Amino acid sequence: MEKYVIEGGHKLHGEIPVYGAKNEALKIIAASVLLEGKCTIKNIPEIEDINRLVEILEDLGAKVERNGHEITIDPQSINKTKPSDDLVHKLRSSVMLAGPLLAHYGKVTMAHPGGCVIGQRPIDMFLSGFKAMGAKVEENDHEYTLQAKKLHGAKIVMPWVMVTATESLMMTACLAEGTTTIINAAMEPEIPALADFLNSCGAKISGAGTPIITIEGVEKLSGGECTIIPDRIEAGTFAIMGLITGSEITVTGCEPKHLETVLETLRRANAKLEVGDNWIKTKPSKLKAVELRTHEYPGFPTDLQSPFTILMTQAEGMSLIHEAIYEGRLFYTDKLNAMGAKIIMCDPHRVIVSGPTPLIAKKLESPDLRAGMGLVLAGLVAEGKTVIDNIYQIERGYENPIARLQALGAKIEKIKE
Ligand code: EPU
Fold first, then answer.
1. Domains assigned to the chain
2. What predicted TM-score, i.e. pTM, was given to this entire model?
3. Position in ligand 1 atom list of the atom nearest CA 326
């Protein structure tokens, strides 16, 4: 078993680069199934979630060539539409393949997806959207099967904002006959990025990045090329890491314009930040507590809630953290209390953090990707040696975090036990 060992209490300095956005890269790879030609994707992060999705595509028969941060997929040799259950269970994003396989090949059977356990995370909106486009849906406890000779356009009204459901239905509608409208669509920057890629392959998508997306179906899509946008969650996490350790660091290769609410919330907490076109610099700051409520984009992202909550353990005063999206994304706060934090859980969606409290190193297990990275941040300020287990969860989403943190002077290493 591999673990991280972190010796806390050291200042960081220097620059840390941001890699490509996991949550765009996964969708572009899934979208490749729709194409009639090869696609080349640049700035792909080298992370476990991408490896797993690529394994599923290869298992379906696609040809994939990888060269560092670049990947070329030739989907034309796909010869089956039922990915292996074992592979699907390892990755929630496997569900992103369902729509494209249905739209291009007329049928798909897939096990229910696995992935981070941060709430109930059903796929009902995917299924009802496919049904609205004319698919026959059969479902049992274990798997679902979708079939349609040819999908047709539909008006799809999302009861609330859902990221992957928006993306999945937008991709699927590209090959449906007629016009599809998605109302109350998610607006995360990865969505217009995905639409731009599909449009460059011949799709007719308009409105991506707004709450109403319109897709005019086309007969077929060609191959193409794209470059993944910088990962805004990495960028935000690293900026918070600079602040929590009282360090001057520069986060490079990022898109601060995708982080307006995050930067504003940090500034309200007295964070001293300098922001350029594609970089964010943190300065030692005397932080004060502020309230946080996670929200769909352009609000404060749920994926940055755990680093921010951990930051609030080092801020003066009481902050109310309201995790509005997921009902299971605050339980890691138990682990922070074991380290000396003062956090009271009001209900599964809300905690109150009183700070500042010194943190003391502990042996911890990473509960999920984002909380796991949050615990790394806690380890960097805690007194003593923090050991973090189950680091697979962290490396699912962050490429080579150890090397990047070591380059900032962090005392962190990966050991095998
Ligand atoms: N939901 C439904 N029915 C559905 C789909 C979703 O009820 O068919 C519910 C979910 O249970 C949840 C809410 O709607 O309560 C939001 O779901 P959403 O679809 O927005 O989340 P997601 O697509 O499962 C994506 C990201 C998450 C990120 C959220 C919110 C990917 C692969 N995942 O998840 O990223 O937290 O949007 O921004 O894009 C991560 O990267 O660590 C991660 C979990």
1. 2-18+230-416 (3.65.10.10), 22-220 (3.65.10.10)
2. 0.96
3. 15
